[in-house]
Amino acid sequence: MPWFSQESASLSREQIQALAQKTLDEARSRLKVDFRRVLLLPPDLTRAHSGAGIITEMLYKLLPKTCDTHVIPTLGQHVPHTPAENKWMFGDIPNERIHAHDWRNGVTRVGTVPASVVKEYTEGKVDWDIPIDLNTMLMKEKWDLIINVGHVVPHEVLGFANHNKNYFIGVAGKDTICTSHMASATWGIENNLGNLITPTRAIFNWAEDKFLGHLPDCYVQIVMNRDADNKLVTSGLYVGNDLETYLQAARASKRQNITVFEEPVKKIVAVMQADEFRSTWVANKAVYRTRMAIADGGELLILAPGLERFGEQPDVDALIRKYGYQDTPSCLKLYKQNQDMQDLAHGTAHLMHGTAENRFTIRYAPAKLSKAEIESVHFSHADLNEMSKRYDPKGMKEGWNTMPDGEKVYYISTPSAGLWATRAKLESQKLGPAGVR
User: Which residues have C-beta within 8 Å of that of residue 142, sequence separation ≥ 6?
Assistant: First the structure.
């Protein structure tokens, strides 16, 4: 059962500090552990707005000074932080205590989810094994306690982010990330978003039960909401080491972080912050989280002042540049024919997630990628300076805005913090194996 939770219109920093201390007290009591060697697993800078870095710093400082504490940001295949970025994200935690996850060479195989299990959970749509390769430092070294910190929010692969996503994507190896992402994409992104238990989540739950039951771990899960001033605030903290802890947080996120429209939206303007989103791999969260709200023939305009590349890794960047974001049938056809797409299956899944399926226009306004580059991957282009003047983030309000010439647009300042969808889209979703939305 969950250890404890606290919900509020807005949890203060002092309340969060007290909850961080309570986490350590409960871990000591429930898991019968001493704090000699502790591992913290927070998200990377693409989720900095969640405050997870601040909570990680709190936990680090609350642990005894004699404790040998280490931090591994759950990068998955994202670019490792620089020392300056670690400082920005994690405050006073010494840089030498923060270790970059190496998804290619720094993992150990702990087991395999057999194709029979994968096939059962995906109703026959996916019939391959999913090998489980996890960070070697995590699995091979001795830990008294492992604390996963993260933001629970609607997610394109798992329905909702965090919980054991920290393990099976955040500190996973290439084979795990590739096979699981392709399984998720095959099930369909619009069937995943906002569902509590998707097939890939169920597969990860199975793997956690089979392979990670010996770990002395717990989850500190953050839920955020917008206050009366439309500022993102922490509205809940959920702590425990079981599935119900995740479900409590995900149900809260489902209530607070999904905006439902009765009619599709003709135009959405979204901003992807320069200090967090530098590739379309992560900036495409603007696409994922709004696609179920946009009308056929509509437009998504993404202001992306930090955008400088497509992929987080050079080989994935090259894959995106080679094939571009194409509709799912085209991607699946190319996947069957091309070894590079098979070798980087998570990249192929990303192309499928990032397409508009020829239904609406995705228009990027980047700072550092050229018009030719943007259009080469099948997006449309807009000038960032012009668009930032017309849709000035300092002057736009969350939600509906009417421009001086009468144009009506829906503005989203932090697409990664929620999900926007029509009621019809949500009601037409295919349920996951647990039969719950």
Answer: 37
Same domain, 151 and 175: yes
**Same structural domain for residues 30 and 146?**
yes
Of the candidates 86, 247, 76, 101, the residue with the CA atom closest to the CA atom of residue 160: 247
380 half-sphere exposure, CB direction, 13 A CA radius: 12
In DSSP terms, 109 is beta-bridged to 133
> Per-residue DSSP letters for 139-153?
HHS--SEEEEEEE--
Q: Is the pTM of this model over 0.70?
A: yes
- Say if residue 232 is in the same domain as residue 348: no
Phi-psi region of 385 (alpha: psi -120 to 50; beta: other; left: phi over 0): alpha
Q: Which residues span the domain enclosing 390?
A: 259-417
From first to last of its 437 residues, what are the pLDDT tens digits of the chain? 799 999 999 999 999 999 999 999 999 999 999 999 999 999 988 777 888 999 999 999 999 999 999 999 998 888 888 999 999 999 999 999 999 999 999 999 999 999 999 999 999 999 999 999 999 999 999 999 999 999 999 999 999 999 999 999 999 999 999 999 999 999 999 999 999 999 999 999 999 999 999 999 999 999 999 988 888 899 999 999 999 999 999 999 999 999 999 999 999 999 999 888 999 999 999 999 999 999 999 999 999 999 999 998 899 999 999 999 999 999 999 999 999 999 999 999 999 999 999 999 999 999 999 999 999 999 999 999 999 999 999 999 999 999 999 999 999 999 988 999 999 999 998 877 866 55
**Total tally of structural domains belonging to the chain:** 2
On whether both 236 and 365 belong to a single domain, the answer is: no
Do 245 and 265 sit in the same domain of this protein? no
What the block records as the tokens of 96 is: 């030498």
Angstrom CA distances, 248 to 10, 135, 224, 228, 377, stand at 17, 27, 14, 24, 39
